Amino acid sequence: MEPRLITDPKLLPILDALKSREPIFHRPEFGTTRRDFDAMCDPDFWEVGASGRRYSRDYVLDTLEQRHQHPHDDHWETSEFHVREIAVNLYLLTYTLKQDRRITRRCTLWRYTSDDWKIVYHQGTVVSD
What we know:
Strand 5 and strand 6 form a beta hairpin. A six-stranded mixed β-sheet has the order 2-1-6-5-4-3. The longest helix is centred in the middle third of the chain and has 11 residues, at 57-67. The chain has 129 residues and is an alpha+beta fold. The chain is built from three helices and six strands, in the order H-H-E-E-H-E-E-E-E. It comes from Dyella dinghuensis. InterPro entries: DUF4440, NTF2-like_dom_sf. This is DUF4440 domain-containing protein.
């Protein structure tokens, strides 16, 4: 029933680079300010949350800005990473995220630009609460 997700060996350096950035917006080494988050996102970025709601780029940036004004402990574990090249310099990264007892499957569409990696799209789907 489960798909067999094996990353092409030629994509392993990309997998390593993207794994270090996930979960998105939870890696302080990549920034904690609105300006940092803005720089991470493609101009057309949007996401579908685990609730199924769609969120605009501006809404996500507003939420992150508010969240980081009140730092909190954030315990999470990632596993089951897989990356696939979708088009030239465009990659789909999938993984599982465990936050406390909640488990979600995540996917992020990443674009490699001359500057850095940019998040184009992100989605989370609840497996269990």
